[in-house]
Amino acid sequence: MEEKILSQDEIDALLAGLADGKIETEPEKKGDIGEVKPFDFRNYTISARLRIPGLEVISEQLIRSLRMHLSTILREAVDIHSLPLQMERFKDFLNRIPVPTSIHIFKLEPLKGQSLLVIDATLAFLFIERFLGGERKHIKVEGREFTTIEQKLIKKVVNVIFNELEKSWRNIVPVKAKYIRGEVNPQFARVLMPEETVIVTGYNIELESLSGKILFCYSLNTLQPVKEKLYSPYQFEEYVDLTWRKSLEKYVLGSKVALSAVLGKTVITLEDLLNLEKGDVIVLDKKVEEPVEVYIEGVLKILGKLGVFKNRIAVQIQKFITLEEEENIEKEGS
User: What is the C-alpha separation between 284 and 296, in angstroms, rounded?
Assistant: First the structure.
């Protein structure tokens, strides 16, 4: 943009206009700010979406495992999607739960405090229907409650969910889901103070004919001891099965590799090689006191000392070559 400098006459005219009021100096109003409303600190809504990397990793692993198990239980393909994390007051969370609902109170030991697992009644009755061999896809839940037998059948699904939940938490902190009791009415699941802040993670379970939600409600105080791990921006390694790991280690350690010890090198002509006779001496590029290079699959890995062990020529290991030294050797060779 070209810079423009005002002349003295233009400056005098501008100052005169400001003095006479011909030039407005008040800023234009951009609209009415509206009526100021009082804020009630006792009755407010915390509900907000947030990101906790650790819980997101747990959710991803739980979705993968539950998709397979629930598909087996329901005998049809199940699609699972995670819902946004929510932070809200415990009483607001309970107020959103309809009656009846399959509510299960548990503890994540060794973490303190109690947590909730909430399964929509539609899903709970569908699980019961499939356990009993039924094929109905439209379940009516209004006005119904869970019988003792139905609660025991639902407990089978809860045990599966808790088992997979424990596996998903292993990369954060090893936990054990201890079942306390089940409820149908949220009014009897008041295990936390009404104003206590909770973190809610959820999953939408979609089938061909219906869908429902599974929710986990954790107290903020329960997650406090592991908050640094939960908020870590780094990805966590997936849990490795110990049996598979031992089997892999056994296979790797039992593998055979080619090992060769090089005393030294030299260059001779093909004619000299063909004319070699017993008693001839080949001069190498290394002295006797210099270390012997030991190659594994053609890669220099060890430096050693030539000697005899139990009447056999042997090499005593003196040093292992580091990765940095390997890179330097490759650079020198190239």
Answer: 21
Cα(188)–Cα(118) distance, rounded to whole angstroms? 13
In this structure, the answer to whether residues 220 and 260 fall within a common structural domain is no
Segment 60-93, tens digit of pLDDT: 999 999 998 888 888 888 899 999 999 999 999 9
pTM of the shown model: 0.58
| 169 and 260 fall within a common domain | no
**CA–CA separation, 278 and 131 (whole Å):** 86
Tens of pLDDT, residues 40-66:
555 555 555 578 888 988 999 999 999
Structural domain that includes position 236: 48-243
What CATH number should be reported for the domain holding residue 264? 2.30.330.10
- Contact in structure between 62 and 168 (CB atoms under 8 Å): yes
Tokens of 98: 């309809």
Examine residue 299 and state whether it is found in any structural domain, yes or no: yes
Residue with tokens 């329960």: 222
Query: pLDDT, tens digit, for every residue of 225-277?
Result: 998 888 876 544 555 567 777 888 888 888 898 999 988 888 999 998 899 89
Per the document, the length of the chain is 334
102 strand-pairing partners? 119
In a domain, 27, yes or no: no
| 21: in domain | no
